[in-house]
Design goal:
The protein is an alpha+beta fold and 298 residues long. 49% of the residues lie in helices and 12% in strands.
């Protein structure tokens, strides 16, 4: 199998980071489609050890524990399924994005906990109440009188629909963003209406609560994405209008933003660095069989 140079470098960097060893040889040993996901299996030789690296998601396993690539793939698929279920119980966005709306995502998590705590209609109505609190928290974190045009009275503090109208106008201004602006407003109205309806639904079922969770998750994600888009569109080269501006320098024409101020770098302590290096992601087991899925066919 002929992997690309980019694939090789990604695996090499991952093993170097996780195993804290230099890679002396690696090759893609196999690639298998399991359901909708393709998993690549890499045979990686380091200076003092040998590993399997399996992708999607990428993990490494010692070949001392896993003798067979079929066994390591079977273990990896099972582990990935369990991790995916655990992740469903957590805030479903990357940490930097979640930090844009910490209070809202915390209340979304509380709503999910209520969803997971029982099987009666009252439990699912409680999900609606938690999600309504989540949407109100969203307004608390985003509402600002600067969003309101001059001469227009600001909405009341808990006026969800009024505030998202102004917020959508700010994050998606102009004709070029008209469709996004309309979409943000539409999902806000429908999500608010559905969530409030769930709080009063005496015949609410689990699927109703799940739909509400997904709707609010989508709303928070869309407004976070719109906010990031708005910030990105505002960073353009003043000379050539390119978006390739990184760290105050245009990658297209070389223009330098004299007002650029770098973000403070997040430092980690020596103790934290040592802890990470001392605990590589190397699950251990006593599996040593050479059995493959074909051994179960019959």
């Amino acid at each position: 199998m002929r992997p690309s140079k980019r694939e090789q470098e990604a695996v090499r960097a991952y093993v170097r980071d996780q195993a804290n060893e230099e890679v002396v040889h690696l090759e893609k040993a196999a690639s298998e489609l399991v359901g909708p996901v393709r998993h690549d299996i890499w045979d990686v030789h380091c200076t003092g050890s040998r590993w399997w690296v399996v992708t999607e998601p990428m993990y490494l396993y010692s070949q001392v524990d896993f003798k067979s690539r079929d066994v390591v793939l079977t273990f990896h698929v099972g582990l990935a399924l369990r991790l995916s279920y655990q992740q469903e119980r957590e805030v479903p966005v990357a940490e930097p994005h979640a930090e844009l709306l910490p209070g809202s995502w915390r209340r979304w998590q509380q709503a999910f906990d209520a969803y997971d705590s029982g099987d009666e209609a009252e439990n699912f109505q409680a999900v609606g109440m938690r999600l309504r609190e989540c949407l109100v928290s969203f307004i608390d974190e985003t509402a600002d009188e600067s969003l309101v045009p001059d001469g227009t009275p600001p909405p009341k503090k808990a006026d969800f629909k009024g505030w998202v109208e102004h917020l959508a106008n700010r994050l998606a201004p102009g004709d070029s963003s008209a469709k996004l602006r309309s979409y943000l407003k539409a999902i806000s109205i429908e999500t608010w209406s559905y969530t409030n309806g769930l709080t009063h639904a005496k015949n609410a079922a689990r699927i109703d609560a799940e739909i509400a969770l997904k709707m609010v998750e989508h709303l928070l994600g869309m407004f976070s994405a719109a906010r990031l888009r708005h910030a990105r569109l505002s960073v353009r080269c003043e000379s050539c209008q390119s978006y390739r501006v990184v760290a105050g320098v245009c990658g297209h024409c070389g223009w330098v933003d004299a007002e650029y101020v770098p973000h403070p770098r997040r430092e980690i302590s020596e103790d934290e660095r040592a802890r990470r290096l001392a605990e590589p992601c190397t699950p251990s087991s006593d599996i040593s069989t050479f059995m493959t899925p074909n051994d179960f066919s019959g």
